[in-house]
């Protein structure tokens, strides 16, 4: 049976999150605190798109500025869409040009990033994004949102690997450097302005038995958005590695975490704490300076964790994955604050930091109104096992009285039957006399 948590959830502070799932749906989850404080219960307030497995959302990037925010999503069929994250309005959609002659499913987009800096420099009707596919085709393209054909110039395309499969791509805070890696591809850092590789990791040496571990990176992030020199990566053989680009090519620190592949890694703004999630649902925080495990988050997830997001202002993180739950955690106590069941396997979660309780009011969407294609049906929130209802004292007394009365009736019936039998025996004796 799947392992689920039955911990009491105190609720979370006011926040807004967007989740992306295997059927291509975008669901907006909002929590509104009681009286402006904590204790809010997150609920699904909007759902964008129609269920279609070919439109599975594989990557997303959000610009959460107050002025003209944007959301970019990459789908399994090779289409990139630019949306309004406030209401789900589609501005423009464009096909991935690097997939010429190849099925999109065979060369899916695994990394997507909307440039904030370039967004400020160009007109509000244009945006630039970086996309990378599993075969290592990276491209930077400027999209004119006023033109539905989105043909505002040929993109700049280059290869980030000669062989292997790319699993992720990340961009640093200055948006000048990008990080790539995957199965058979060592972690490497590129200068985006020159489109040149500036550093590549070196595989660890064989162990004492001479066994060499194949390269397989599953996730990575820059330890600090302001410093591209320190990189944290997770591997398929449950290792977490810290690289220092300015020091050496081999890991500075490397340690194992549990016994299943690392599936998600997220950094904390403090510059030395990371959050890791693995394929068996373990979620933990680690001080990467020493490799010390700070602690695991309370409550076991029942499926592989695929995405972790750290809120830039509130002391919370969000996690989601194959158990279809969005969970909000307190980073101080590592306690589960709240959870929402979203019916489908989740691929990614992002926070909308511009959300406030006084913003546009939404009507809560009832999940029972979803289409039949969403085959998983369950409650909207994760609940502990139901308990039997205790009877009140009055009901208890009335029950006792009824039992007593029924017993008295049974006794009187038995006495009457005995008297009848005795009188019958007496009549028989008189007849014989």
From TrEMBL:
Show the SUPFAM superfamilies listed in the entry. Quinoprotein alcohol dehydrogenase-like (SSF50998)
Q: Please name the InterPro entries in this protein's record.
A: Quinoprotein_ADH-like_sf, WD40/YVTN_repeat-like_dom_sf, WD40_repeat_CS, WD40_rpt, WDR74/Nsa1
List keywords of the entry alphabetically.
Repeat, WD repeat
Q: Which GO terms of type biological process are on file?
A: ribosomal large subunit biogenesis
Where, in residue numbers, are the WD repeats?
A: 298-339
Short name of any one Pfam family annotated for the protein: WD40
User: Where would you find the membrane-spanning parts of this chain?
Assistant: none
* Region entry Disordered, spans: 378-433
Q: Which GO terms describe its cellular component?
A: nucleolus; preribosome, large subunit precursor
In Swiss-Prot or TrEMBL terms, this protein is called Uncharacterized protein
Biological source species: Hibiscus trionum (Flower of an hour)
């Amino acid at each position: 049976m799947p392992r689920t948590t039955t911990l009491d959830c105190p609720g979370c502070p006011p926040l807004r999150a967007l989740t992306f799932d295997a059927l291509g749906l975008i669901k907006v989850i909002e929590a509104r605190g009681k009286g402006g404080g904590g204790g809010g219960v997150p609920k699904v307030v909007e759902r964008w798109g129609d269920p279609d497995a070919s439109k599975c959302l594989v990557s997303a990037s959000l610009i959460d500025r107050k002025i003209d925010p944007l959301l970019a999503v990459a789908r399994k069929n090779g289409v990139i869409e630019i949306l309004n994250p406030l209401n789900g309005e589609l501005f423009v959609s464009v096909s991935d040009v690097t997939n010429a002659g190849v099925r999109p499913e065979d060369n899916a987009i695994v990394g997507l990033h909307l440039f904030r800096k370039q967004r400020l420099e160009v007109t509000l009707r244009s945006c630039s994004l970086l996309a990378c596919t599993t075969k290592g085709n990276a491209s930077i393209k400027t999209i004119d949102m006023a033109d539905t054909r989105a043909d505002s110039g040929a993109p700049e395309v280059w290869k980030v690997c000669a062989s292997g499969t790319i699993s992720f791509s990340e961009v640093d805070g200055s948006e000048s450097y990008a990080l790539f890696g995957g199965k058979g591809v060592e972690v490497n850092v590129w200068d985006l302005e020159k489109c040149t590789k500036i550093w590549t990791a070196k595989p660890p040496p064989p162990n004492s038995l001479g066994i060499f571990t194949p390269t397989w990176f599953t996730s990575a992030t820059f330890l600090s958005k302001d410093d591209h020199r320190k990189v944290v990566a997770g591997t398929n053989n449950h290792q977490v590695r810290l690289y220092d680009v300015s020091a050496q090519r081999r890991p500075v620190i490397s340690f194992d975490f549990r016994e299943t592949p690392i599936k998600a890694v997220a950094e904390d703004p403090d510059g030395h704490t990371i959050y890791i999630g693995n394929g068996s649902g373990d979620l933990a925080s680690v001080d990467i300076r020493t490799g010390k495990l700070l602690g695991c988050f309370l409550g076991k997830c029942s499926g592989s964790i695929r995405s972790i997001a750290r809120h830039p202002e509130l002391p919370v993180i969000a996690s989601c994955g194959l158990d279809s739950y969005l969970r909000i955690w307190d980073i101080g106590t590592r306690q589960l604050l709240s959870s929402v069941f979203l019916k489908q396997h989740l691929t990614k979660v992002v926070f909308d930091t511009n959300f406030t309780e006084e913003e546009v009011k939404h009507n809560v969407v009832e999940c029972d109104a979803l289409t039949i294609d969403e085959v998983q049906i369950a409650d909207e929130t994760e609940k502990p096992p139901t308990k039997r209802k205790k009877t009140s004292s009055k009901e208890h007394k009335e029950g006792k009285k009824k039992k007593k009365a029924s017993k008295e009736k049974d006794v009187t019936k038995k006495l009457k039957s005995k008297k009848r039998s005795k009188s019958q025996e007496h009549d028989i004796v008189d007849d014989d006399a």
